[in-house]
Design a protein that fits this description.
Radius of gyration: 19 Å
Number of strands: 6
Number of helices: 8
Strand content: 5-15%
Distance between the termini: 6 Å
Strand order of the largest sheet: 3-2-1-4-5-6
Oligomer: single chain
């Protein structure tokens, strides 16, 4: 770990709260269609629509809103009224207007790391929404570079590492998703630290832990300091 010069952080559910807001929105959406299907069935339909549309919309609130509209139309066989559609749009707007709530220890940890390492944000999601959250977070001053990625695959991290003019063995990624923040980075030859969050989007869940001497798992973000 003495070779690390650049540390990248996922944003959603690593630096600040995100997934609980989507789960609240999903609950509100499912309640709109309880006369058609069970809560669980509506949630499954919505998730399937989201995953189907990822290659079109990418990750983020806007894609979630469009997937809610599509799911509503399908579940209701086109009978969903305009007032119901207005409620769906309002659900999406509510997510966009949520305050940015930093996770415990984030600001203090970044303060310790600033000046010692080159700090980067590497996150998926909608460009405008992620820029808004970063601005509201008050964390911008800590970061050398902000990368809002359309996806987080091996090639995406390779591109980021090249852009930073950094060798993989000097790069550490910290995030809450094994699938998106850990496995692709290990494939590049970089280091990766997993900080589990208490809720994870179903599409991001990955139960098996990687077997690599470049992988570590922390209970919270403060533990990173003990390994650097």
């Amino acid at each position: 770990m003495n070779s690390i010069t650049t540390i990248a952080f996922d944003a959603d559910d690593t630096l600040w709260v995100n997934e609980p807001y989507f789960q609240e929105a999903e609950t509100a959406f499912c309640q709109l269609f309880e006369d058609y299907l069970s809560h669980e069935a509506v949630a499954q339909q919505l998730l399937a629509t989201e995953i189907k549309n990822l290659h079109l919309y990418g990750y983020g609130v806007k894609g979630f809103m469009l997937s809610m509209v599509e799911t509503a139309t399908r579940i209701s066989n086109g009978a969903a009224s305009l007032p119901v559609m207005d409620k769906i749009i309002a659900i999406g707007h509510e997510i966009l207007e949520k305050p940015v709530e930093l996770l415990d220890g984030v600001a203090e940890t970044l303060d310790e790391l600033k000046g010692k390492y080159r700090l980067v944000v590497a996150t998926k999601g909608d460009l405008l929404d992620q820029e808004r959250k970063l601005r509201k977070s008050g964390l911008q001053e800590y970061f050398h570079h902000i990368e809002i990625m359309s996806d987080k695959r091996n090639a995406d991290y390779q591109k980021l590492i090249r852009h930073l003019d950094c060798q993989p063995e000097h790069f550490l990624m910290i995030g809450n998703s094994v699938k998106s923040d850990i496995l692709p980075v290990l494939e590049t030859g970089g280091y990766a630290a997993h900080i589990p969050y208490h809720v994870t989007w179903a599409h991001e869940r990955h139960e098996q832990k990687p077997e690599s001497d470049r992988f570590m798992e922390f209970k919270n973000i403060r533990e990173v300091l003990d390994y650097l």
